[in-house]
Amino acid sequence: SQQGEEDPQALSIQEGENATMNCSYKTSINNLQWYRQNSGRGLVHLILIRSNEREKHSGRLRVTLDTSKKSSSLLITASRAADTASYFCATDRGSNYKLTFGKGTLLTVNP
Amino acid sequence: DAGVTQSPTHLIKTRGQQVTLRCSPKSGHDTVSWYQQALGQGPQFIFQYYEEEERQRGNFPDRFSGHQFPNYSSELNVNALLLGDSALYLCASSPPQGLGGYTFGSGTRLTVV
């Protein structure tokens, strides 16, 4: 069963704009991660945020985590056409514990 | 440094047949997990292998089985294939104690006809 739900399911923006995707989950977690997937290929790890962290940055990515609301957001700033992909959040309950994914957000960045 | 390698990349099988998918983990990783991703869905956890034994299992029938070899590589076997088994199968490896997180392979696209 899916643990998380991403919102929106699809997002279309222009190059240079910011893209924000949200993820909600149901049970307590240890870590929350965001992955990118291009055209049904493998998953690329973007960023991991631990349950005791509230915000994390990596390049053009900013992730926030609100454990009281069981939600996270991924912000991609100054988007590029190459950012076009599906984005998934995944939660776990500890190191090497299984990942539980949401259904993903399909981001399209128009040049 | 090679990442996670999966083979084959694509596969077409007939209902009722059996299939074996293979995965070589990233160097230094000792744990292998398998996920099934249906079209338009997020990946679903099938099982995880560590020290040649199944350590965790998701909600998949016994038709799905696996194996891990002493060199940490792994196989996923699916018996009595159903049309609904058509999906992208992803392998992920992780280092000892899970430190450093998961690395995913590019997947095997299985089509059951």
Describe this structure in words.
The complex is a heterodimer of chains A (about 110) and B (about 110). Chain A is mostly beta strands and about 110 residues long. Chain A contains no helices and 11 strands. Chain A has strands at about 5, 10-15, 20-25, 30-35, 45-50, 55-60, 60-65, 70-75, 85-90, 100, 105-110. In chain A, the strands form 2 sheets. In chain A, strands 2, 4, 5, 9, 10 and 11 form a 6-stranded mixed beta sheet that branches. Chain A is globular, with a radius of gyration of 13 Å. Chain B is mainly β and about 110 residues long. In chain B, about 0% of the residues lie in helices and about 50% in strands. Chain B contains no helices and 11 strands. In chain B, the strands form 2 sheets. In chain B, strands 2, 4, 5, 6, 9, 10 and 11 form a 7-stranded mixed beta sheet that branches. A 4-stranded antiparallel beta sheet of chain B has the order 1-3-8-7, with no helix packed on it. Chain B is globular. The interface between A and B is medium-sized, with 25 and 32 residues.
